[in-house]
Write a structure and sequence with these properties.
By secondary structure, the protein is an alpha/beta fold. The chain has one domain (9-257): 3-Layer(aba) Sandwich (Rossmann fold), CATH 3.40.50.720. 42% of the residues lie in helices and 12% in strands. It has helices at residues 18-30, 51-60, 75-89, 112-137, 156-161, 163-182, 202-208, 218-228, 242-248; strands at 9-13, 33-38, 64-69, 94-97, 144-147, 189-194, 239-241. Strand 4, helix 4 and strand 5 form a beta-alpha-beta unit. It is globular and about 45 Å long. The chain starts with 8 loop residues before the first strand and ends in a 27-residue tail after the last helix.
């Protein structure tokens, strides 16, 4: 792919590991700037990486990084991250709403603290980070908001399976549709991206299982790169699936994204039905 993110400034929520870090590293190889707002300041034996180790990886990959320890639920932390992007790199070109909480409990067993956590990080966090960056996105030449959230699959089996989580993730996707419409005249793109299959991340290993039936996070990173290097006025309001984005770029061989210990058929991700 010849399009590049060189010199562009990305403001990302989360990203200490997994898909968010993969997106940041793909941008860093182009020479992008990444401001990462994440809570993980200290190592956790259950989760690899912190916001500081992520920043080090970004700089080793060829980008510039600013690590901001903060919570996407906290308005002051969000505005501080935006201001640090402006102070360090002169503005914000791209927002990536990556931070997300997951709990697949059914309605009766889902505690309201966990419900509130998912709503606050997933839907509210997406709304808040996007809102705070809008004035700076308007000043960008090719501004994008990319949210890691699913297609709005209204099949009852998905909504009924884990209602609390579904509400929070579909809220993120509704933010995409609403922002795309609201910001169209400003030329600010808003799109969502979701993997067709499970992705080998800590969340999958710890919550869902089946990492041996999952693709590597780099497939989502390459799809995100394709979206974010496209024209913001020509591509907005979409709820993309990763392999469809790559197919539009002429990439059909996805074998490079298979894990070394792949065993058997890949497992479809939540909210994705068989074709």
């Amino acid at each position: 792919m010849t399009r590049t993110l060189a010199g562009r400034t990305i403001l990302m929520s989360g990203g200490s590991r997994g898909i968010g870090l993969a997106i940041a590293l793909r941008a860093a190889r182009d020479g992008a700037n990444v401001v990462m707002l994440a809570k993980t300041a200290m190592p956790d034996p259950r989760l690899e990486g912190t916001v500081f180790t992520a920043a080090e990886e970004i700089e080793r990959a060829g980008g510039k990084a600013v690590a901001v320890v903060g919570d996407v639920r906290d308005e002051d932390d969000v505005h501080s991250a935006v201001q640090q992007a402006v102070d360090s790199f002169g503005g914000v070109d791209i927002v990536v709403n990556n931070a997300s909480a997951i709990d697949l409990s059914g309605t009766e067993t889902l505690g309201m603290k966990r419900y509130d956590l998912m709503q606050d990080i997933n839907t509210r966090g997406t709304f808040l980070l996007s809102k705070a960056a809008i004035p700076h996105l308007r000043a960008s030449v090719n501004p994008h908001i990319l949210t890691l959230s699913p297609p709005l699959n209204l099949a009852p089996h998905w909504i009924g399976r884990h209602l609390g989580y579904t509400l929070s993730k579909y809220g993120m996707s509704l933010c995409t549709i609403g922002l795309a419409e609201e910001l169209a005249e400003d030329g600010i793109a808003a799109n969502s991206l979701w993997p067709r299959t499970l992705i080998d991340t800590a969340a999958v290993r710890n919550v869902i299982g089946g990492a041996d039936r999952a693709r590597a996070p780099q497939i989502v990173a390459d799809a995100a790169h394709a979206i974010l290097t496209g024209g913001s006025r020509e591509c907005t309001g979409n709820l993309f699936v990763d392999d469809e984005v790559l197919a539009a770029e002429g990439v059909y061989d996805l074998s490079a994204y298979l894990p070394a210990d792949a065993s058997g058929e890949l497992e479809l991700d939540i909210f994705v039905d068989p074709a």
